[in-house]
Structure formats: structure tokens, C-alpha cells
Amino acid sequence: MRWVLKKFQELTPDELYALLRLRAEVFVVEQTCAFQDLDNKDQPSYHLLGYQQDELVAYTRLVPPGISYTAASIGRVVTSPAHRKKGFGKLVMQESIKVCDQLFGKNTIMIGAQCYLIEFYSSLGFVPSGEVYLEDGIEHIEMTLTR
Hints:
By secondary structure, this protein is α+β, with helices and mostly antiparallel strands. It has three helices and eight strands, in the order E-H-E-E-E-H-E-H-E-E-E. It has helices at 13-30, 88-104, 118-122, and strands at residues 2-7, 46-52, 55-63, 72-79, 109-114, 127-128, 133-135, 138-145. It is globular, with a radius of gyration of 14 Å. The mean pLDDT is 94.
């Protein structure tokens, strides 16, 4: 896996297109959820892109503290449907945690997890820290990684 980490303003047009295409493929088309993906949190965030050869197969958005939560957060976690069951989801989350530690210090990280992924995020050290809530018609729960 080749990792590329960039601030929003550093993304090339091709990188931005690829990450938005992947997000739409999964969050809008696959999950049949019409929602406003472009939420003005991309601009202050860092973007972690994971490539196999020249294909974007995994992505996360690393949000600085004070934007989504008081703590840093990892969001828009996505792997390509064509490349599932290969461990890329775990790899991108492990790399995201490592990069958050480098960018924001080894502090608390918060996520808004889709409920069906609680076990996955728990395996990475996240624990539920809130009540289940609906976001765009999908059950979510806040989870926290505290070190």
C-alpha cells in the first residue's frame, strides 16, 4: 500500500476527483443514501489516500480538533468495493491513527461510526462513547480512542 497524505489545498485535481468518486460510490450509490457529502470540513482537514499500484483503494479524512469534535477525528472512512476483504480497511485505519498522532499529538481520537462497524472499530481500540443516532437514515454511534 502506498500512502499519500495531503492538506486539501495540496490535492491535485485527479486526487480530489478520485477521492470524491470513491466516497460517492460507497456512501451515495452503494449505501443508497442521498446526503450532502461536501460539508465544508474537507478544506481544513488532511486527506489520507491509500493506493494499490495507481488505483485509490482506501481513504480517510483526518479532521483537526475543534471541527467535528473537541478531539481530532477520522471520518469518511472508505474502501473500494472492488478491493474489499483484503484488509485495506484495517490498514487505512491503522495508518490514520498513526498519522493523527503525528499531526495532532497522541491524544483522544473520535469517530462517528456506522453501527454495523462497532466490532471493527472496537478491534482498533475505539469504545462507544455516546448514544445511537440517525445520520442520513443510517444508525451511527460516537466512538472514542483514548490513549
